[in-house]
Write a structure and sequence with these properties.
Blueprint: H1 2-8, H2 10-35, E1 53-58, H3 62-78, E2 83-89, E3 104-108, H4 113-125, E4 130-133, H5 140-150, E5 154-158, E6 169-171, H6 181-186, H7 209-222, E7 230-234, H8 246-259, E8 264-268, H9 274-281, E9 287-289, H10 296-303, E10 308-311, H11 314-323, E11 327-331, H12 335-341, E12 348-352, H13 364-378
Parallel strand pairs: 1-2, 1-4, 2-3, 4-5, 5-6, 7-8, 7-10, 8-9, 10-11, 11-12
């Protein structure tokens, strides 16, 4: 409806959008007033040793959950007595389903308002000592959720400009505008006496043993012993402006398959791009496509067995970096976005587009030259890994 109105009457669309935003803020202040009655205006400094329960809001994307793992694990390691619960999304909850640092996972469903409200009220009845809002921007949704679910407990926010009065501790936005997201999230632990530099850049993804074994088996089904290494190329991106194009990928893969005939290439793609991946893979006998119908956990456990991976998608980059797999990530010239989401692992390379918000200006020649550089580095002197079909 809003899109149609923008086309027919842009001015009216702006007015209605502004009205919608202001109405949401009115709702926030009403909820804030009702929920905060009787609560102290400002709480004293947090005493971590008196805290028993912590609720963390992390209900967004997979990559966000992965780079938040150091925050979870560092907090649990420093204070083992804490019970840490997480409000997650359907997309990212599987990252922590087998994580021993997390006591309970609750699900946020933005498409089911009534169910979400009931979940928030149930969380409120838990009376958490501390609620941490890791949604690192000014979000009406997260503000409502932290006020409802957090009750009268201590509330910590990240980059909540102009909302200092609604949080007991807030990480300012401006000083951390060019700080990596993992360190921004780690700053939420300052009230616990933990500084961002005490948190590692990445912390292990903890999957069930049988899931890691399934990944090994899936890779073994694709690997051919006549090839001396397996290189992943992910063609799917989380946003349209990160897409690179089927024609370019086809030319790139065809050239790689011919010039690296002793290596095997694995095309990875989201279900919506699977047929495109099959067409791209037609460029060589040593090119295969990831199996269809796989879960995110399957993909994670498979990435572990790759010699390296190339990707325009930051979630795949963070998965690879977390697992210690060499990677080449594609990024635009948007400096703030790059500073916050670039890979921090030791064996990572980046190729940046000359355009501000698109990868389209990266040429096939540029991508190929960078891949050649990466492969020359990772295959010397360390021999390629070969996944055995037997245990």
């Amino acid at each position: 409806m809003q899109t149609i109105l923008e086309k027919k009457s842009p001015r009216l669309a702006r007015v209605t959008k502004e009205f919608e935003v202001q109405f949401k803020w009115l709702v926030v202040w009403i909820i804030f007033f009702l929920l905060r009655r009787g609560a102290p205006a400002r709480k004293p400094s947090l005493n971590p040793h008196q805290v028993k329960t912590v609720l963390i809001l992390r209900y967004d994307k997979v990559g966000d959950m992965i780079i938040s793992l150091p925050t979870f694990h560092t907090l649990k390691e420093r204070y083992p007595h804490l019970r840490i619960d997480v409000l997650a999304s359907r997309e990212n909850r599987m990252i922590i389903e087998h994580d021993s640092a997390i006591h309970q996972i609750y699900l946020f469903r933005k498409d089911r308002i009534r169910q979400t409200w009931q979940t928030l009220l149930a969380l409120r009845r838990q009376r958490y000592d501390v609620t941490i809002d890791l949604v690192a921007n000014v979000s009406v949704t997260s503000l409502i959720m932290v006020q409802v679910a957090g009750g009268n407990g201590y509330k910590i926010g990240v980059r909540k400009n102009n909302l200092t009065g609604l949080y007991d501790f807030n990480i300012p936005r401006k000083p951390m505008a060019r700080t990596h997201a993992s360190k921004v999230h780690a700053a939420a632990l300052i009230p616990f006496g933990i500084t961002p530099d005490q948190c590692p850049a990445y912390s292990p993804i903890r999957l069930a043993p049988q899931q890691w074994e399934r990944g090994r088996q899936l890779i073994a089904e694709l690997c051919e012993e006549r090839y001396s290494g397996l290189i992943g190329i992910n063609i799917s991106a989380g946003k349209p402006n990160r897409a690179w194009g089927e024609e370019k990928y086809t030319e790139l893969v065809r050239g790689l398959a011919a010039d690296y005939a002793d290596r095997q290439f694995l095309i990875m793609a989201a279900p919506v791009d699977y047929h495109q991946a099959q067409r791209i893979a037609a460029g060589g006998d040593n090119v295969r496509v990831i199996q269809s119908g796989l879960s995110l956990l399957d993909v994670i456990s498979m990435v572990k067995h790759l010699d390296c991976i190339m990707s325009p998608d930051t979630s795949i980059c963070h998965i690879a970096a977390n697992l210690g797999v060499p990677l080449l990530g594609l990024y635009s010239q948007a400096e703030g976005n790059f500073a916050r989401w670039r890979p921090l692992s030791e064996r990572s390379w980046v190729l940046r587009s000359p355009e501000w918000d698109s990868l389209q200006a990266i040429t096939v020649r540029q991508y190929r030259d960078k891949i050649d550089e990466v492969l020359a580095e990772i295959y010397q002197p360390t021999p390629a890994r070969v996944v055995s079909k037997d245990k």
